[in-house]
Amino acid sequence: MVNKGLRSALLVIALSFIAGVIGILLGHKYIMPNAGKTMGLHEKIHTQLVLDEAQNDKLHILEKSFATQKTALEIRMKKANARLSMAMQTSHEMSPEVLAAKSEYVKTLDELQTLTIEHIFAMRGLLNEEQAVRFDAIVQKSFRNIAS
To answer: What gap in Å lies between CA 85 and CA 82, rounded to an integer?
Structure first.
């Protein structure tokens, strides 16, 4: 039989995990629904811009690298959010632990946004002048759609 202290600890861990998952889902849905997304730019580049074979090959390499880095940052965000949840369950106030966990989450989110912006510029760097003008229009429209 599980003793009362262990049962309480397991309950706190389970509730913290659930709160963390809910926090991630709500944050991604309502607070930052487009965090880390390239707003369909890959699809638009492939469908709206005529790329030559060399550009396509380089784009696929960029996309693969971006996806790997993005996944790693998303995993870090989930872990940071779980730490935030645990800190909130432990202190129930804006304690140094809560602030540190929040700061870690926000720092990782910022890294993800920076990675995404760098990726957009890297994709643009593959294009010729005419393609770049069309790409800029696609990016502007994507950002306007996010803002509205």
So the answer is: 5
